Amino acid sequence: MANLSGIGSGQASTGRGLPAPQKLRGEGARTLRAGFIPLVDASVLVVACEFGFAHKEGLTLDLVKDVSWANVRDRLAFRQFDIAHMLSPMPVAAMLGLGSNPSPAIAPFSLGRGGNAITLSNRLYARMVEEGGLGGIGDALANTQALATVLRRMTSHGEAPPTLGVTYPFSSHNYEFRYWLAAGGIDPDRDVKLVVVPPPMTSDALAAGAIDGFCVGAPWNMVASERGVGRIVAAKQDIWPSAPEKVIGMRPEWAEANPETVSRLIVALDAAARWCDDPQNRDSLSDVLADQRYVGAPVEIIRRVLSGEFTIDAEGQRRVIDDYFVFHRGFANYPRSGHALWIYSQMARWGQVRITPAGMTAAASAYRPDLYRLALGDDATPIGSDIGIEGASADDRFMDGHIFDPTAIEAYVEGFPVRAAGSASAFDAEN
To answer: What keywords appear on the UniProt entry (predicted)?
Structure first.
């Protein structure tokens, strides 16, 4: 259960000293309490608050920095938050009744794409080079295949499996880490041990030897590599470039009671996302994110992360990832029902749910393109169905070559050679 005593400053802001916003028709003056985790992918929410985009729409955002996704989930459910920065699978899990506090939640706005990476300890990576035949800077698939070789040797010598951290059971990090491992022939429920680690604690946990690797959002992967305690071995773009990342979550009954507020919020977030995508604004964005009220990481690291410039290891080897963060371009904010169904497929793949017609309907209902379209109009939405074939285009392929057809989810899941054998995953889904 969440700590309900109040985490973070919870300081309200109308945006750089602007006067109080005007009242909304029929809904009163709107101050929205919004929970967030200190990650770069909270940028759109922070910018909407700090640079006046919310104020222009008659809203005041009271941003509350929290420490874990379970806290964010519970404080939204218990009405301490009106809206929340959430992992893309969290509303899907909520609508499916999964987890220890499955209060319904919907997502009418995506906060963009990108930002995740997988980091392993230097010790484990050294074994991948020595025992796994990894030469030079391997790509994501070569890295997981080398790790698979190391794990087979560890098993044969009676060594305990590595402990790997994800941020939440129903998270893009969990499903992306599992996808990466399984692409190399590694069973995430048998060959490694997965545990939950809050994002800001991942680098420290790796340095202390409490975990052997993690999947987390920026800037914590680069913080670990800059400290010399880990090696970045894969990025979100390597696994699936269009994978949904974070969303704005809210309770469905709150959205129904405050339709004008929801529309104005979406308009403000859309404007903030456009601002975040402009390279000319990166320095200003980095400065505000570096503030302890928000991400609280070194400003130079945040600048490089926003540019996709990675220091991947202690030796200073670098990698540049184009479009590591996309905040607005390519309809990045549009909440596609097909993405919710892909998340559902991964829940089924790893034994968290069984595939049923009712489950598919519930999963798709978590994402609300209708509310997005109502606020921004048809011109702001992509042409075609919200439920499309994913991974079929040359520039948006899954790392293992699979193609997701949401009309054939069962066949899609059964097509993976590595998947959960039973109806429940060994990974605790009740955190």
So the answer is: Cell inner membrane, Cell membrane, Membrane, Transport
φ and ψ at 45, to 5 degrees? -65, -45
Contact 295, 286 (CB under 8 A): no
Model confidence over 54-67: pLDDT tens digits?
999 999 999 999 99
pLDDT confidence of residue 395: 85
In terms of Cα–Cα distance, which of 221, 242, 240 is closest to 308? 221
Give the Cα separation of 234 and 221 in Å (integer): 10
Strands 213-217 and 113-114: unpaired
In 3D space, the residue among 333, 325, 363 whose CA is nearest the CA of residue 346 turns out to be: 363
Q: What is the pLDDT of residue 248?
A: 98
pLDDT class of 29 with cuts at 50, 70, 90: low
pLDDT in tens, 298-334: 999 999 999 999 888 777 788 898 889 999 999 999 9
Judge residue 28's burial from the number of C-beta atoms within 10 Å of its C-beta, 0-12 exposed, 13-18 middle, 19 or more buried: exposed
Residue from 9, 61, 99 nearest 248 by CA: 61
Q: Give the CA-trace dihedral at 90, 96, 99, 101, to 10 degrees.
A: 90
Domains and CATH numbers, the chain: 12-114+245-287+329-411 (3.40.190.10), 116-242 (3.40.190.10)
Give Dmax over CA atoms of the chain in angstroms: 69
Residue 25 has pLDDT above 60, yes or no: no
Contact 94, 366 (CB under 8 A): yes
CB 350 within 8 A of CB 178: yes
Q: What is the pTM of this model?
A: 0.90
